Amino acid sequence: METDSDYTDIMQHIERRTGIKPSGVGKPTWVRSIRKRMEACESSNIDAYARLVASSPIERQELVELIVVPETWFFRDSPGLDFFLSQVLEAEKRGRRKPWHVLSLGCATGEEPYSIAMMLAQAGIPLLRFSVEGVDISRRALERARKGVYGSRAFRGSSVLPYRKNFLRTEEGSEVRRDLRQRVAFRSANISDLSFGFSARKYDFVFCRNVLIYFSSDVQDRVLTNVSRLLEHDGYLLLSPTESELVRLKGYPHTGPRLACAHQLHATDSVVPRTIVTTDIEKDIESVEPVQARETETEVQQAPDPLVEAQQLANEGHLDAAWQLCLGCLNSGKNEPALYYLMGALKMAQHSDNEAEEFFRKAVYLSPTHYDALVNLALIAERKGLNEEAYRLWLRARKCSTDDSETEGVVAYGRS
Ligand SMILES: C[S@@+](CC[C@H](N)C(=O)[O-])C[C@H]1O[C@@H](n2cnc3c(N)ncnc32)[C@H](O)[C@@H]1O
């Protein structure tokens, strides 16, 4: 018979990978999902199943599919959508003719990105002047999103009524008009991943509604950092009412009517508490050089640390410029885990796993407990199919993670 800590090990592993905290979806859902997957894998031993989850990306994805909550409907939380449209129309009135780029994070089965596309099209924005992208961790939800055919659960309330003409009735359900479907692209990604948000494209609006609530505060901070990389300088992040309040308490005030739940991350950088904008890399820099940093405080103010500057550039999506600064640091003899880690992250953002691996290894060589470098090395090993190596690295990363002290004695993957 399994004990609570058996489930805890698996939940913590999935939380580290996806950001989804155990309390976000409730323990009964986790237990039910784990049992269902154990049955599907014909596994009656929870230790063996925990090892499978740790070593197999396919099994992890299967489990995640059962845990996520892809609950959504057309024109949900309409004040946010109304605010979005009003901003678009005002800018158009002022003469803006650039294309609009909108991103829906945690888009589930696609109702939100399609609602956005319908609003833009119906407001008279030509189809070729906007694009909408939907991102979700659930591949099953995305399959349904791409299909664009919906049953009655997707239609709740009256906000959808003015948009009825965008659907075609088919035997399977209501199908989104084909020309609109072509303006919406879907892709699968983990928005809490450190490497998420390094994209060549910037977005005017990022919707991330009813997603942050599933994450711990630290993971929310990480997602906000990722989103700030993706947003145009004057772009808006739109949240659900609960999340908007959480984010306001983190130091990002509302922009526009409160009910719209809109926030501008860049415009409010100055009021963001340091803990919010401090990335793991910056924390690493601080922990490596605390004494030196104090001694040279005046100098640091006059000439900013190029490594911190490189991190900021990377956060803003200027990857080439960040890379050049890193090279400069390297040439001037800097030999720090934070530098190698950032270089690895930049290479990872370009999908150059081999080069990224080299830098992460250097970071770990200098700082053997560098959690993020270890996690990224594990991910790379996994992608290369080196499951044993990945498993070993995950174990190491797990030992280094701060909350291990709380779970002492519950070493998950070392049990046989
Ligand atoms: C409740 S739905 C929200 C749908 C839509 N945004 C809305 O407000 O109606 C939450 C979605 O977030 C997705 N999700 C959870 N964690 C995620 C992650 N780390 N990366 C990407 N998507 C994630 C889930 O798969 C799920 O489809």
What does this structure look like?
With 416 residues, this protein is an alpha/beta fold. The protein has three domains: 4-67, no CATH class; 78-271, Vaccinia Virus protein VP39 (Rossmann fold, 3-Layer(aba) Sandwich), CATH 3.40.50; 278-384, Serine Threonine Protein Phosphatase 5, Tetratricopeptide repeat (Alpha Horseshoe). It contains 21 helices and ten strands. The protein has helices at 4-18, 22-25, 27-40, 46-55, 57-67, 78-93, 111-122, 139-147, 178-181, 217-230, 241-249, 274-277, 280-288, 290-295, 297-302, 306-315, 319-331, 337-349, 353-366, 371-383, 387-400, and strands at residues 100-105, 130-136, 149-150, 167-169, 174-176, 184-188, 203-207, 231-238, 254-255, 262-263. The strands form two sheets. It has a seven-stranded mixed β-sheet with strand order 6-2-1-7-8-10-9. Helix 13 packs antiparallel against helix 18 (337-349), helix 17 runs antiparallel to helix 18 (337-349) and helix 20 (371-383) packs antiparallel against helix 21. The two termini are 16 Å apart. The chain binds S-adenosylmethionine.
Map the helices and strands.
Layout: H1 4-18, H2 22-25, H3 27-40, H4 46-55, H5 57-67, H6 78-93, E1 100-105, H7 111-122, E2 130-136, H8 139-147, E3 149-150, E4 167-169, E5 174-176, H9 178-181, E6 184-188, E7 203-207, H10 217-230, E8 231-238, H11 241-249, E9 254-255, E10 262-263, H12 274-277, H13 280-288, H14 290-295, H15 297-302, H16 306-315, H17 319-331, H18 337-349, H19 353-366, H20 371-383, H21 387-400
Helix pairs in contact: 1-4, 3-5, 4-5, 13-18, 16-17, 16-18, 17-18, 18-19, 19-20, 20-21
The structure holds S-adenosylmethionine (SAM).
